[in-house]
Design brief:
By secondary structure, the protein is an alpha+beta fold. The protein has six helices and six strands; from the N terminus they run αββαααββαββα. It has helices at residues 2-7, 24-32, 47-68, 84-96, 121-137, 169-184; strands at residues 10-13, 16-19, 100-107, 110-117, 145-147, 156-158. This is CGNR zinc finger domain-containing protein.
Length: 187
């Protein structure tokens, strides 16, 4: 899911937070590796695009935090999240930045109508990421969206089965080890 991949570009590691979108070059590499973005193969992020995408990620994370409420949001940036209304406006504006137009694609004997962006290419990446976030947040999977409660984890995940509590088995192991340590620390 593109929306989850996007917000997961901010991760916790042993040395603290790591950002897969740390600079325009990192954004370029990340965006080129996502076929679903359907970007020009020569896409290279500018400093302005990078700032827009990082701001958009913070706004999407604010919407994810609202979606998991009353549970706690991810601890990565909870203190820096914009207010809900501002985050919603940011994501909606980014999604609208690139209008689309219908185009007819004719393969063999069948015609298919597709929508293609007709706006400036500098806004295409942010628009596609915002649209993916809006589709996810309005879709059925949002009911299973969770913030991972494991120590130091900052990820959101979609709960795939009723007993799933963490985003990964590694986080589950860390949470159980921390719980065991706390229980036996006083002996």
């Amino acid at each position: 899911m593109l929306a989850l991949d996007f917000v997961s570009t901010l991760r916790a590691g042993r040395g603290g937070l790591t950002d897969s979108l740390a600079d325009p070059d990192a954004l370029t590499a990340w965006a080129r590796s996502r076929a679903e973005l359907d970007l020009d193969p020569g896409f290279t992020a500018t400093s302005e695009q990078w700032r827009q995408v990082v701001d958009l990620r913070l706004a999407v994370r604010a919407l994810f935090a609202r979606a998991v409420a009353p549970g706690p949001p991810s601890s990565a940036d909870a203190a820096r999240l914009p207010p809900f209304g501002q985050a919603l406006d940011t994501v909606n504006a980014a999604a609208l930045a690139v209008p689309t137009a219908p185009q007819l694609v004719w393969d063999d004997d069948a015609a298919t109508l597709v929508r293609v962006p007709v706006g400036p290419s500098t806004a295409t990446l942010s628009a596609r990421l915002a649209q993916a976030a809006l589709e996810f947040l309005a879709g059925p999977e949002v009911a299973e969206l969770r913030a991972c409660p494991a120590p130091r984890c900052v990820l959101y995940f979609v709960k795939e089965h009723p007993r799933q509590e963490w985003c990964s088995t590694g986080c589950g192991n860390r949470a159980r080890a921390a719980r065991h340590y706390r229980a036996h620390r006083g002996e």
